[in-house]
């Protein structure tokens, strides 16, 4: 299958590209820079030059492929609303281009929710609609094309997709800790983040491409929710730093932009995904990755 992958040189996308190539798929990866194009071609993928702002290039890549895996996103937290609007425009343009084709259209989403009394499940719809909502409401936008001749699947990734080289939330926490001289968590640290190893997330994407029906939501979640104080303690043990409780009103001052996320309490189940796709996570846990040095910092 010829698969157009946006974000193909990113943290999750590069692992997905490797997984698809290893299982005899042809990968055409969106490349914004010459360096990204060279890295893709060195793996045996084909580079498609363009960006999320070049929606016509995105549409051309989608039309020329048998399937689309949309993983790119502008992780610009100084203009998160603008990033959402860009995402909405990019997704709509690609969907309109492949409408009526029956092609799979998988897109990255997340498991963040305001459900407090139980883990989020695959049956729970996203509350976000429209270009001005988080991530541009792209999950609901994509799923709305299930009756328009597209096979959309929402790939809901855990808050931490971890592994050696992870540039995400846990890496930022470790960098803040080194700067502050202690590892912080908000309040009593009982709020939780779900996690999945990068290799397991990539395998889930491949399985969803092959098996997930139109309109599916699948959860790339191996651990339903780890207390942030346990994550902080693991970082502290590895870096040789104490852990400290940070008052919630000081979140942004202590953590910077990640302070908005540091206090979120998120749990999510992947039971239905495991049954649907035959997916069983086998990678290391987040705490094992931290202990093994996945978040080692430069001296």
From TrEMBL:
Residues 117-140 are annotated as: Disordered. One of its GO terms (molecular function) is aldehyde dehydrogenase (NAD+) activity. GO terms for cellular component: cytoplasm. Residues 117-132 have a biased composition (Basic and acidic residues). Residues 3-213 form the NAD-dependent epimerase/dehydratase domain. PANTHER family: NAD(P)-BINDING DOMAIN-CONTAINING PROTEIN-RELATED (PTHR48079:SF6), PROTEIN YEEZ (PTHR48079). This is Nucleoside-diphosphate-sugar epimerase.
